[in-house]
Amino acid sequence: MASRSFGACVLCHPVLRMTCRRMSAAADLQSQIDFLQGQPHKKHPGVTKLKNLGLPDKLQAAALSVIQGAQVARLTERSRKLTNFLWSRKRAVEDFTLRKKAASLEKELWEKAMETPDGADEQLLEERIRKKVLSELRRTTYRWTAMKYDEELGVVYMAARLAGGYAAVRRAMNEIKKRDPSFAPQSLLDFGSGLGTVVWASHSYWGDSLKEMVCVDSSGQMNILAERLLKGDDERAEPPIKHVYFRQFLPVSPKVQFDLVAAAFTLSELPSTKEREEAVLTLWRKTGSYLVLVENGTKEGHQILMEARDTLLLTQEKTLHDSRPASVFAPCPHELKCPKLAVKPSFPCNFQQLYQPLRLPGLKHKEQQVEEFSYLILTRTEPVQAETAAVDWARLIAPVQRRSRHVHCRLCCPDGHLQHLVVTARKHSRDLYRCAHGSHWGDQLPVLQKADDGSQTD
């Protein structure tokens, strides 16, 4: 009988074979980037979700003082109705869309009239069809009206949206704080500043460096209310946040830039695509480093942000005072067309943040509520790169489903595709499995290898 070689005997031994596999796997992992960067698995670099957020103590106290002094009738009921109204709000219908719809309706009615002529005079028939078209347009067209805040409605808005709006803005800005810890802005511009939540959220991260914060809102009453929230009960007392300036119009000079520019729940208040596009381009010209846009986590909010994204990535301006191009910082891991818009039926790309609601007088509240929002951050600086191309960071776009020995992750990937990845320790490494198990909706997840039998593209 022919004798087997020593190497063959080694490979046949089950213990030695297992040892070789483990050594090989360890070598493979060693050759890849250490994506944990010394952090524990539950706090890996892709974690950006925050725990239950509450309003700063001074902001909460000032808001309750304003509410108590205003004594608005049926405040709880009105704040609930306003919340529902703002959530269900759609964009105004464009004029060209209305004209197109009217022409289609008119054509359809004429075709029906010609099929069954009733002998009516042509001029009379034309008048009848015109009235039917107008009636149908009134019945089916969304009636958009601009929000006009007086003193009382401003207090209702504060009761309805202060805590949730603050939570959404704080969560979006946490992305910059976590991924670019060296960023120390000295100036801030908040367009459509409303209650000043952007100022409070940004101050919580960069209070030591911010020296100038300009709040722009067309509503004089909103500016007065935001200033009262800054000063608190005692108007003579020194405000907790200094160097805040309120304006009703943007700074005129196109050369004036701010390190951080934000617009939260503002673009949806502009009546047309053209006005939103002009506003986004103006804000970008004034952006020195980061532009942060936040909207409701609805289809409307998401689509408005994707329009803004396309405007800044695709528009070539003739006059440039800052030639550095726009690049997407978050949440998209790519600059391709949003894959969620290509899926039918489409669902918005949105995220959730737990927060503690403003405790209105005489009302029992839940310990926490959920703010659902969409956001977009663009930057003039170079995108943050991994140390090596071995790691692609994808975005979790749905809740992580944890099962026995495997985790279901739905991801938006750097190649511009949606992916349903089933992560296991055996197929994807123990480190990646533990990271996936501890991650949440909205976090980033390092994908160390190509999709295999346990993954699929949605």
Output the keywords:
41% helix; 3 domains; 458 residues; disordered N terminus; 14 strands; Rossmann fold; OB fold (Dihydrolipoamide Acetyltransferase, E2P); alpha/beta
Written overview of the protein:
The chain is built from 14 helices and 14 strands. The radius of gyration is 27 Å and the shape is globular. Strands 1, 2, 3, 4, 5, 6, 7 and 8 form an 8-stranded mixed beta sheet that branches. Strands 9, 10, 11, 12, 13 and 14 form a 6-stranded antiparallel beta sheet that branches. By secondary structure, it is an alpha/beta fold. The protein is 41% helix and 17% strand. The N terminus is likely disordered. Helix 4 crosses helix 7, helix 5 crosses helix 6 and helix 7 runs parallel beside helix 8.
| Radius of gyration from CA coordinates | 27 Å
Number of helices: 14
Query: What is the string of SSEs from the N terminus onward?
Result: HHHHHHHEHEHEEHEHEHEEEEEEHHEE
CATH class of the largest domain: Alpha Beta
Class by alpha and beta content:
alpha/beta
**CATH architecture term of the largest domain:** 3-Layer(aba) Sandwich
Task: Provide the CATH superfamily of the largest domain.
Answer: Vaccinia Virus protein VP39
Which segments are poorly predicted (pLDDT under 50) over 5 or more consecutive residues?
1-12, 23-32, 385-390, 449-454
How many separate domains?
Answer: 3
Q: Between the first and last Cα atoms, what is the distance in angstroms?
A: 56 Å
Kindly state the mean pLDDT as a whole number?
Answer: 85
State which percent range the strand residues make up.
Answer: 15-25%
The biggest beta sheet is recorded as: 8 strands, mixed
CATH topology assignment of the largest domain: Rossmann fold
So what's the oligomer here? single chain
Choose one word for the global shape. globular
What is the number of strand segments? 14
Can you give the helix content as a percent range? 40-55%
